Amino acid sequence: MSGRVRLSSTGELGGKVQVPPSKSYTHRAFVMASLASGTSRISNPLVSRDTLATLRACQEMGASLRESQSEVEVIGSEPKTPGDVVNVENSGSTLRFMTSIFSLPAGGCTVLTGDSSIRRRPMQPLLDALSQLGVKAWSAPGNGCAPIIVSAGGMRGGRAEIRGDVSSQFVSSVLMSAPLASSDSSLAVTDAVSRPYIDATLLLSELFGVSIHRKAYSNFDIPGGQQYRASGFRVPADFSSASFIMAAVAMAGGSVELSGLTQTFPQGDSKILDILVEMGVKVIRHEGSVLVEADGRDLRAREFDLTDTPDLLPVVAALAMKCDGPLQVSGVAHARFKETDRIRVLAEELGKTGAIIEERSDGMRISRPDGFVGAALDARGDHRMFMAFALASLVSQGSISVSGEESLDVSYPAFLCDMETIGAAVARE
C-alpha cells in the first residue's frame, strides 16, 4: 500500500503533455486481433494493469504475441478453452468482453474472476442475453457477479434482448462474439448508455473485417459465420486520461498543450472540451493536439448530463471545487457500477473537505467549500477517484491528502509525473 499524496502549485501550470493511449480502444483491438486469422499490428497500445489483463486472457484463449516498445503483434487463432482460471484483476472490460468470447471454443468450461471490486460488478444482464443466444454462462455464487463460469461449445445465435442502462460493455461484448456464432443474431437494446463506446466497438469491428448492421442504438443485426481479418491499428490518445490534465489547468490556471489527441475515432469523453468551454476555459483544438488555457479564476458552475460519458463524473466533480456556485451532474446512475459506486464515494470523500454535496440517484449537486478543511481522502482503489481527489488537493494547495496512488496503473501510470512536468508539486508522505 502506498502512502498519501499532496499536490500544490507555486504558479500557473505550463508545458506539454503526451497523452497516454486509449484504454477502451486498446482492449477492443487486442480482443479482435486475437480472434482474427493472421497477424495484426497494434501500435501505441496502452500498457496498464487493465489492458495487460485483457492481453493475458487473449493469450489463454490461444493468441500469440510479439511485443516491441511501441507495438504488439497479435497472431490470432481459433479460440480455445484456457487451462486455468482467468484472473481479470480489476478490469471490468476484460470480464465482460471475455465472458462472451470464451463461449466460442469447441468444448470445456472457463472460469473468470478478479479482485474484490470485480466480484461486486453486475453481470446478470449479459448472462441473460447470452442464454438467449444459446450460451450457458452463470454466476458461481448465484448473485449475478463473478466468478463467472462459461460453458463452451459455440454461440448458436438468434434473437436476444439486453439492458443497456447498466453498462455499454454488455452490448459490446455480444457484438464482438456474435459474428462468430453459427447463425445470424439480432440484439435489441433498451436504454443504451455510454453510446460512444458502442460506436468504438462498431468502428473496430469494421476495421477487422466484421459486418454489423444497426438501427440507432436499439437494434443490431449481426450475420453469423463471419471471420475477423487481421489488420493494423494505431490506438488514439485517451480523452478520459487527458481530462484530468485539462481540469488541472482549468483549476490552477496556465497553458498546457496535450498532444496525441484526435477526434478521428469516437471517444465520448472528448465532451470535456465542451464542458471546459462552458465553464469559461479557453480551448484551442488542432488535429493531433489540444491547447487549454485558463486564468485561474473561479469557473462558471453549470449543469451537465453525462449519460454517455460517465467516466467524466469524477473530473467534473473535482472541477466543482473551483466553481462560482453549485455544479450539478445528472444521467450517471450507471456510475454506481464502476470500480466503486462513484456517486457515493465522491459524495463521502469530497464532503470531508467542507464541500456541500447532495447525492442523487443519478448524479449529484456540489458546492465548493467556503474554505478548504484539511482532509485525508481515500480513492478506494479506484484510479479515477484518485486523480479527481488529486485535483482537489491541487486547488486546496495541499491541505488535502489522497491515498490510493497504486490504482493509477489501471489507466494512467504516469499521471503524477505528468503533473510534475507541467509545474505541480507532488509531495508524498
The named CATH superfamily of the largest domain? Enolpyruvate transferase domain
Principal-axes geometry comes out as globular
Number of domains: 2
Give me the number of helical elements: 12
| CATH topology title of the largest domain | UDP-n-acetylglucosamine1-carboxyvinyl-transferase, Chain
Looking at the overall shape, the CATH architecture of the largest domain is Alpha-beta prism
Quick one: how many beta strands? Answer: 24
CA(first)-CA(last) distance: 12 Å
Q: Can you tell me the residue ranges where pLDDT is under 50 for at least 5 consecutive residues?
A: none
Radius of gyration over C-alpha positions, nearest whole angstrom: 21 Å
The proportion of residues forming helix, as a percent range, comes to 25-40%
The major pleated sheet works out as: 4 strands, mixed
Judged by helices, strands and strand pairing, the structural class is alpha/beta
What does this structure look like?
It is a single chain. With 429 residues, the chain is of the alpha/beta class. 29% of the residues lie in helices and 26% in strands. The strands form six sheets. It has a four-stranded mixed sheet with strand order 22-23-1-24. Strands 2-15-17-16 form a four-stranded mixed sheet, with helices on one face. Helix 1 (23-35) runs parallel beside helix 2. It is globular. The model has no long low-confidence stretch (mean pLDDT 96).
Quick overview:
Helices cover 29% and strands 26% of the residues. The chain is α/β, with parallel strands linked by helices. Strand 4 (64-67) and strand 5 form a beta hairpin.
